[in-house]
Every structure is written in structure tokens, then in C-alpha cells.
Design brief:
The protein is of the alpha/beta class. The protein is 39% helix and 14% strand.
């Protein structure tokens, strides 16, 4: 599977992607606008709707499953609601869809004045905000909760918001386990058949919504949500793919941009190919940092004493799995594709992820693939009850957004560049370029427009060791937003996402969101 830009892997590894969690393929660039200067308006027929907030139930399987959200440590309860939005904004009086929302009302500790709603998107595309926000709120957003209603949602096509559905659990298991690095023509044909079958299943189950789940439509939903929540401006916190959504929102609605933070930033100037190559390089760099740390801490079982020897052993393991999958405790074997996905999942987060990966590789060397499979399934949205719709939504949004469609000849042509970018992940990420090849709807544009002249300042945060959304993307996003809009911040660390992980950066963001203090452009945190 392609690599998601998201923020949550499995609940057990909730820190694993610093909010990271979808799957491992970063989404391609998003929808462009039609070029008109006029700001789209809130659909009149839906502008007066009132949200009916009630106690939340446990997330459904399609949202990722798990327990009913627990009250916050200050006693605040979680409330859920649904908001109606047009399926097609070009036909605002036509069919509507329900978008799932969640909130925790501001605690207003010590008599602090409420600042309004702060809306979160955790990435993917495909991550359910309804199930993700409660996982992070107490640990990461407690300070913000004193003055903001914390709000999130399942974007259109995700979870309980007209969630895209494709293969059943058994077929999804088989598809994700299948050989994703074909070595000959027969295997290439199998790979293409698999992509085609997946696309067909999505069309059969969710055909009516596939043309209406792009980032531009999701940005229109955000503005409707702002209006229905009673806010003059949208205060927004986007992580990973959520930064792309935030950038598109700023482009469409510059005068409605409130205090906005973009963390782990998608490069809006890259097309699908450049994005995938950047990720291949990013994950290879993160793997190198991991093996260097292993050798330095003397905590890994590599036979060689150098990081290069460690990478070599990991490469040998991956190659061996092509013909000999490892048994696991789950009753499903660890194939090469699942192992690559599991390793990539762990590289999202330096603390928890690296620790689990060390154990996973030690066990794999002993012939047990259980922990690597566990990592992979967390990233693929699999629970005991089945799959969330992370992968279907990821593909649907990515393919609705971008116009690039690749053939097997294209992939073969680009393989040398991918292998140069990453000895471990190169082939795997190159073949993922096929994900939209037989998709039933056309995409919007090759790249995404985020120019937002006249918008209030937007904080744009890049982490130098981010594997999924490489550091350079943050500077590109800040530049594209425009002078005086994009405020570029650097964190010199490893991992995907920085808020709640790096104290310096977290303090800067808190001062901005709570006091309105805009940091100096190009401020850096060690």
C-alpha cells in the first residue's frame, strides 16, 4: 500500500506515528481549484442546520474500532454529532451526506475566556478524527482544551462520513499480503490484476461517492463546519495529510483562516512521482538513523557492528520473505509486503516505534514474524473485527485529487531512481505508483494550489528526520501560502509530527494558539 500521511497507528502504538497512524503511503498531492478568485459560499440550504450533540458511542469498525471514548482527566465528556453536507457542491440542493463530528467543550479552567472551536485533522487521508482525537487529547492537547472546544470529524469518504468501502476482510488480508515487488512479467500481471480488483470493489460498493471525496470538497466541508459551529474564522490544527487539507482551505477561504497550525507538512508543489521518491528517501534515511542508534546503544542483534551491516541484514530478511513468509501468532503469515509496511510503520516514531522495531527484528531473526505483522496491521487499520476504511479512503481521496496514472512501463522506467533513493523500500514504493491506474474516476490536478494571499499567519512545521513528509515540504508549503502568511518553523529531530513531542516547538505553538503570538519566520528548535 502507499504510505499514508496520518497520525495514528494502533491504539497500542498510539504514539507510533506521533499521531501517526494510517498506513504507510503518503498521499499524493491534492485537488486544485477551478482558478476562480471568488470564495465559495456556504450552501444556503444547509447553513441554518443545528448540530445535535449527544454522548458518543464506541467507534465503529470502519472508524477503527476500540472502546467508547473515556472522559478527559478534568471530567469533560465527549459529545458526538452529525453535520449534513452536499454530496456534490456543484449541486448544493441535491443529495446530502452525513459527516461524523466529535467534540470536548472547553474546560475554561481558572476562568480563562473561551477562544472558540479548534478543529483537528489527523491525516491519512483516511484517518477517523472521531476515533483519533480522544486518543491524543489528554496527553497532547490538555492545555489547549482550557480555552478551546476540541473538535474533530471523519472527512467525507472516511469512517462514518459516507465511508468508502471496498474489499471484505478476507480479500483485504490477501491483497495487502500479496507480492508488491514483482520480479517478472507474470508477477507484474498479478499486481495489476490486484489493483484492478480493488478499484472495481470500491466502485461496486461506493461508486456514487468516489467522484466527491477530494481534498477540495473536504475543505468546503470545513468551511460549512466553521459556519455551523458558529465561528467567524476557522481555528485549525492539521497533521500530515491534514496540512494539505489546511493549505487547500486557506487557498479557497483566505479571509476565514483563523489560528492555523500545520505539522508534518505535505509538499504542495510535488506531483505523485516526486512525492513517492521523497518518501522512499525519507524512510531510507529514517532506517539509517534507526540502525545507527541500534549500534550506538548496543540494543540490536545485528551480527555486524556497523549501521551498514544492520541495513544489510534487514535487506536480507526482506529478500528472504519474497519466497518464504514467516509464521505469526495471528494465523496469517508475514509476507514481504507486510514486513516492509511494518518496518515503515515503526519509523514514524522514534520512541515507541524504534523500540518495538528492535524487538520485531530480533523475533524475525528467530523465525517469528508476529511483531512485524502487528506493526503492519496497526498501520493498515486492521483490528480483530476487521479493517477500518483507512486504505479505501486513502486511495479514494488520493485518486480523486491527482491526475497522474501510471503503467507498468512507467514503473519500470522509474525503478532505478527509486532503488537509488532506497535500497530497502525503493521497489515497494515504486510499484505503489499503480494505485490509481484503473481507478473509476479522474483526478482533479497534478499538484495542489495553496496560495492564500491575505490570510492570517499560518504556522508550518517541518521535522528534519520526518520519513513520511520530508522536511523540505514545510518550506515549500510556507512559501506557497505566501509572504506574511506561511511562518516556517524547523525541528531538528526524528519522527513524523512534532507537537507534543518537542517541548520547544510545543511551547511556540501553544503561545500562538492561546495568546496569538506569531513566532519569527524560520525559528528553529533543537
Amino acid at each position: 500500500m502507499p504510505h499514508h500521511h496520518s497520525s495514528r497507528t494502533a491504539v497500542l502504538l498510539a504514539s507510533l506515528a506521533v499521531l501517526a497512524a494510517a498506513t504507510v503511503t503518503a498521499c499524493g498531492p491534492g485537488a486544485d481549484t477551478d482558478g476562480s478568485a471568488a470564495t465559495p459560499s456556504v450552501p444556503a440550504a444547509l447553513s441554518d442546520q443545528k448540530l445535535n450533540w449527544t454522548a458518543c458511542s464506541a467507534p465503529s469498525t470502519i472508524q477503527g474500532g476500540g472502546d467508547k471514548p473515556e472522559n478527559l482527566s478534568d471530567g469533560t465528556t465527549w459529545q458526538c454529532s452529525t453535520m449534513k453536507a452536499p454530496l456534490d457542491y456543484a449541486n448544493p440542493d441535491g443529495r446530502t451526506i452525513d459527516l461524523a463530528l466529535i467534540r470536548a467543550k472547553a474546560s475554561r479552567d481558572s476562568g480563562h475566556e473561551r477562544l472558540g472551536s479548534l478543529v483537528f485533522n489527523f491525516g491519512g487521508p483516511g484517518d477517523s478524527g472521531v476515533s483519533s482525537l480522544p486518543l491524543f487529547a489528554d496527553d497532547d492537547y490538555r492545555k489547549l482544551h482550557k480555552r478551546y472546544d476540541l473538535v474533530s470529524f471523519d472527512p467525507r469518504g472516511v469512517g462514518e462520513s459516507a465511508g468508502v468501502e471496498c474489499l471484505d476482510t478476507k480479500a483485504m488480508d490477501a491483497w495487502l499480503a500479496a507480492d508488491a515487488t514483482p520480479d517478472d512479467t507474470a508477477e507484474e500481471k498479478d499486481a495489476v490484476r490486484g489493483v484492478r480488483a480493488f478499484a472495481k470493489s470500491c466502485e461496486n460498493s461506493s461508486g456514487a461517492v468516489l467522484d466527491h471525496v477530494g481534498t477540495q470538497e473536504a475543505a468546503r466541508d470545513l468551511d460549512l463546519m466553521r459556519h455551523v459551529l458558529g465561528e467567524k474564522k476557522l481555528n485549525y490544527f492539521g497533521i500530515s495529510y491534514g496540512t494539505q487539507l489546511g493549505g487547500v482551505y486557506a487557498h479557497l477561504f483566505p479571509e476565514n483562516v483563523g489560528r492555523t497550525v500545520l505539522d508534518a507538512v505535505v509538499d504542495p508543489t510535488q506531483n505523485v512521482l516526486a512525492n513517492a521518491l521523497g518518501q522512499a528517501e525519507g524512510f531510507q534515511g529514517a532506517l539509517r538513523s534507526f540502525t545507527e542508534d541500534c549500534v550506538k546503544q548496543k540494543v540490536c542483534s545485528f551480527k555486524g557492528e556497523s549501521p551498514a551491516a544492520g541495513e544489510k541484514e534487514i535487506t536480507a530478511l526482506i529478500e528472504s520473505l519474497d519466497s518464504k513468509p514467516l509464521p505469526t501468532d495471528f494465523g496469517r503469515p508475514l509476507t514481504q509486503s507486510l514486513a516492509l509496511n511494518g518496518i515503515a510503520a515503526a519509523l514514524y516514531d522514534r520512541e515507541m516505534g524504534w523500540m518495538v522495531l528492535r524487538d520485531a527484528l530480533i523475533m524475525a531473526a528467530k523465525g517469528d514474524g508476529s511483531v512485524l505483522l502487528y506493526l503492519s496491521e496497526g498501520l493498515n487499520g486492521r483490528s480483530d473485527d476487521g479493517y477500518s476504511n483507512l486504505n479505501p479512503a486513502f486511495t479514494a481521496v488520493s485518486c480523486a485529487d491527482h491526475t497522474d496514472r501510471f503503467t507498468t512501463d512507467d514503473v519500470r522506467q522509474h525503478l532505478p531512481a527509486f532503488r537509488k533513493a532506497s535500497a530497502v523500500f525503493g521497489d515497494w514504493m515504486a510499484w505503489q505508483l499503480l494505485q490509481c491506474t484503473d481507478w473509476p474516476v479522474a483526478g482533479h490536478a497534478p499538484t495542489v494550489d495553496v496560495t492564500a494571499d491575505g490570510a492570517d499567519p499560518v504556522l508550518v512545521i517541518g521535522n528534519t528526520g520526518d520519513p513520511a513528509t520530508p522536511y523540505e515540504g514545510a518550506k515549500k508549503m510556507a512559501d506557497e501560502l505566501g509572504k506574511g502568511v506561511g511562518v516556517h518553523l524547523t525541528v531538528d529531530d526524528e519522527g513524523h509530527g512534532t507537537y507534543g513531542v518537542n517541548d520547544c516547538l510545543t511551547g511556540i505553538v501553544d503561545k500562538y494558539l492561546l495568546d496569538g503570538t506569531v513566532p519569527k519566520n524560520d525559528t528553529a528548535c533543537a
